[in-house]
Each structure stands twice: as C-alpha cells, then as structure tokens.
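Section 4.2 – Deliverable D4.2 (structural model, holo form)

The reporting period included a commitment to supply a predicted holo structure for the target in complex with S-adenosylmethionine. Inputs used:
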Amino acid sequence: MDRLGGTQASTRAVRFHQRIPPHRLMRRARRVVDDAIDLVRLRLDALPDGIYQPVPGLPVRKAKRAVGTGSRWAAMEPVIERLGVESAMDVGANVGYFPIKLAGRGIPAVALDSDPKNVRTATTAVRRNHLDNVAVMSLELRADTLALLPTTDCTIVLSLWHHLVRAEGFDTATHLLHELWARTGKVMFFDTGEDEMPEWFGLPRMVPTPDAWLSDYLQKTCAGGRVEHLGRHRAFDAAGLPTDRALFAVIREPS
Ligand SMILES: C[S@@+](CC[C@H](N)C(=O)[O-])C[C@H]1O[C@@H](n2cnc3c(N)ncnc32)[C@H](O)[C@@H]1O
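Output (structure tokens):
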C-alpha cells in the first residue's frame, strides 16, 4: 500500500510540476527562500527589546505596546472614517502598524522611520500582508529632510515629539511639528511622552496638566486646527514601566 501510495503520489507530483512553467516554479522557490531569510532577519532585528507594535502578519507572540496601539487605532479609526481620509503619512512609524491598518482600509500610506531595523521589519510586514499601497521610507525627520515629505490628508505623529525635543531641542521640534501640520490636509494625530519622561529629554513642564498643556500647545502650533482629545492610552516610560498618554486629533477647519 505504501509503495503503491508512494508511487501514485510521486506521479502526481511529476504531473503537477509538468503543468507549472519553470519561471513560476523559480518565483515560488524564490519566495520560499525570501521568506526564510526575512524570518531570520526579523528575529535578529527584534533583539534585544522585542517588537513594539502588534503588526498583523508577523510571527510575534506579544508586542511591547500592544494594548495602547490597539486602543489608539480604535480611537483614530472613526475620525479617519468621518473625515474621509484618502492618504496618510506616519512619521516615526516604527514597524508600520498604523500604515498597514490604513492600507487595509484602502488608504495608501507612507511609513517613515529612521531606524533601519524598523524599516526592514515594516517592509517585511507590508509584504506578508500582501499590500501594494504602503511606501516604507527610511529617513530621519530633521529640518533639512522635511522637504522630502509628501502632503497627505492625515499625518500621524505618535510618540515621536519627545524624541525630536531630545535630539533637536524644543524650538526645532516645534518647527518640525508646525511643518508637518502644513503638510496635513485633514487631520493630524498626536501623542507624546509627558511628565513621566526623564529630565534629560528636555521636555517643558506640562502644567497645569499634560492634557491641558498639550492641547494648548497643539492649538498654537497648528494654526487653523481644532484639537480633539481622544482619551488616554497605555504606554511605557523610559524605564519600561507602564504609564498612559493623551491622544489628540488636530482637525483642519474649513477656511
Ligand atoms: C517610541 S516609538 C513610537 C512608534 C509609533 N509612532 C507609535 O507610537 O506606536 C518612536 C519611533 O520614532 C522613530 N524616530 C525617532 N526619531 C525619528 C526621526 N527624527 N525621524 C523618523 N523617525 C524617528 C523611532 O525609530 C521609533 O520607531
């Protein structure tokens, strides 16, 4: 039976291969090898901290900011729907969770990040999700790279601003945010490290409360925008301890 079964199976396999043209077989073989290499790269790039966002399609058991990422998306999605967003750019996109979610809704999105490990993981995630409407961009946002950024309906600036303040100082970070807003057609989503961040980040004192200070700061920096508070969402501080951060939508008012 085994011999008979084995013979039948190998005959079927030969017929199957005879029906597939060699170039398609090559493509399939290439994909298998690519997948294996991507998987090794992915595991290496996830060291030592693991993956930050729970991106669909990646073999990750638990992302570091899984809860706060899912809850932010749940708060953002109705705004995106309501405003009829048709294009988006995520600055500091990490491994591409938000662009992939947007692309899944048919909204083409740019995922920009300065860390090559994140860029590689985002590229793999886009491929594994079979998406052809996400552009993964390897770039550090700075005053001299700003001109490379497109204008889109929706700009996502999540947990990036405190890094800009730390790297470039408050005034430059404010200038960069102002310029990102200028490239925003309908809505900008924003959150940041607040008073849980260590002093060496150089963040301003957010008084009377981070919610009030940030709301006022966004209102002043994003002229013609209306600031909506979208709740507080789980995050972690520089030492990895749990905290939460306010999420805002700045919505461009019709002029
Ligand atoms: C704390 S993570 C936040 C990731 C994501 N935006 C979120 O909230 O889920 C900050 C991300 O911004 C990226 N980043 C930091 N400075 C950047 C810069 N100047 N330009 C582009 N990306 C930057 C980091 O590589 C990292 O992926």
